[in-house]
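Hi, here's the filled form for the chain we discussed.

Project: internal
Contact: R.S.
Residues: 213
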Amino acid sequence: MAVARPPGPIGLAERNENINDGTMIRAVSPSPGSVGLAQAPQSKEEKAKQAAQARLRQNQDYLKNTNVKAFIGAIAAAEGGDYNLKFGGVKGKKNDKWQFSDYSTHPGAGSDGKTTAAGMYQINKATWKEMGDKMGLSDFSPETQDLLAVEILRTINVIENVAAGDLTPALRAASRRWAALPQGPKEGGRYNQPFMPYDEFLAAYQRLGGRAK
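And the returned structure, exactly as it came back:
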């Protein structure tokens, strides 16, 4: 005996258009969506903003590395800086004339009226602008100062050496940026000015939890 055809347009089952094979009931059509629709191209500003945000996140991750944190701490020890000091300020001195409390921007020139090195890592205004722009940062807060130091190490291509505790290539390059650093275990400072001897740098680095190769 032939099976009775379910009610509906003749030929619907044979065409198998949106039919559920088990019940012969018409299936629900998919909702309209954006499949196949072209995405609007990003502007240069949007791309730059996303790149800066990604760079910032990466640098924040680097700061979680114990060796990186210890290395920039040893740089600060060599430079004699503090988060709230302009050039010429003395770390630990009360009511120092060259202290600053406004972290909304770079504090500018220090004791000689010209040199703009400031903060924990004695970063000058031009470097602050260059490195800050890469992360979309325009303040000079303690957190930003740490991130600026990391960005400098990335820019001179030694951040992976620092993270791995490989101090010799890291110092060789970093001493070009921070005059108070030694060039390496058997080398003095790069410039004709006082610098922290390697043994003292290493001691500060290890005291802060760093492990050297």
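Let me know if anything looks off before we file it.
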